[in-house]
Design a protein that fits this description.
Blueprint (H helix, E strand, L loop, with lengths): L2 H33 L2 H17 L9 H19 L1 H25 L2 H11 L2 H12 L4 H8 L3 H21 L3
Helix pairs in contact: 1-2, 1-3, 1-6, 2-3, 4-5, 5-8, 6-8, 7-8
Length: 174
């Protein structure tokens, strides 16, 4: 490796390291919303950064934050596709557990836990819209850019998610 190539390589690593330091927490929270598993969320982020390095994508990225959000989202969906059968089994089990936990939560009067469990029961695409809107306080336009959907689609998914949450929570009379 020539001195010039080595310097370029070091600068590239510095840019990627800075991007990781700047956005890793936000990327983790987002991946966790989609995947609901800490290890999988970390794996998704790690795979995105490895792919950036391996394919030398750092050469062409103009907006790291936007690029990383979209890349992590896509990687999360790849992970979901790979474990699709397992997710179906987990979803069935989770549904059974949800009703069992309702009584336990009522005993402790912890409505936050009930709401969080209701959110986790939403379809992934609705759950991620709820995350960006409620937890990250993003506008529908900003969410649309992140998840690569029209504002109308984002708005509809948000409305459907809120309707489902209301339905879930009314069933348990929260």
């Amino acid at each position: 490796m020539t001195l010039e190539n080595q310097k370029y390589h070091e600068e590239s690593l510095h840019v990627i390291e800075s991007a990781y330091n700047d956005y890793a927490n936000e990327l983790y929270k987002y991946a966790l919303v989609i995947l609901t598993d800490s290890e999988d969320a970390n794996d998704a982020i790690q795979q995105v950064f490895i792919e950036i390095l391996r394919k030398k994508k750092y050469l062409s990225i103009q907006s790291y934050k936007q690029y990383l959000l979209v890349a992590v989202r896509n990687k999360c969906y790849d992970i979901i596709k790979k474990r699709n059968h397992l997710n179906k089994l987990k979803a069935d089990y989770s549904s059974m557990q949800f009703l069992e936990v309702v009584e336990e939560c009522k005993d402790y009067e912890d409505e936050r836990i009930l709401v969080e469990r209701a959110i986790r029961k939403l379809p992934i695409k609705q759950r991620e819209i709820i995350y960006w809107k409620i937890y990250e306080n993003k506008t529908f336009k900003e969410i649309g850019e992140i998840v690569e959907m029209s504002v109308n689609t984002v708005t509809s998914r948000y409305r459907y998610a809120m309707d489902k949450l209301k339905e879930y929570l009314e069933k348990i009379k929260i």
